[in-house]
Amino acid sequence: MNQTFRKTTQSLAPSTHTPPDGVFNIYPAQPIGPGQIELGFSALAQLLVPHQTIVIDGMGGVLWDDFQTRLTASLRATGVAFEWFDIREALLPESEINRLIGPFLGGDDPLFGTRNTCPLRSFFAPEKLNELHRRVLSAGRAIVYGTGAALAGSPG
Length: 156
What we know:
Rossmann fold, three-stranded parallel sheet
């Protein structure tokens, strides 16, 4: 997959970094010992395979469709398949979300917008969350994913 997601020439932070002695370390880290952190979708897939239900929540900046595609491929390589459930299915309609965030946008001058104080749950329809929860429970192996996935109430 050769998609460009970043519009910058800045390099990605390295997965490991050891600066020369006496040079400021722009990637400070604290060693935690071997076997504590893995790297890549294959490693993640290996950790997930033993589980029946998985909930993967994260910030809105995650490229969830790309994440699902890559993790699905890595899971397929293990011979295990999951049914995927996108939490976005339970979002309120766009017009309702716009109504909720409207007061925070600054009106005619977005420079004066403020931080949204609505809890994440308020952007989801309770009946849709309940239906998603029911579907996840009835699935064999399931992954609920996306920003707010934990709100589906599925054990995982």
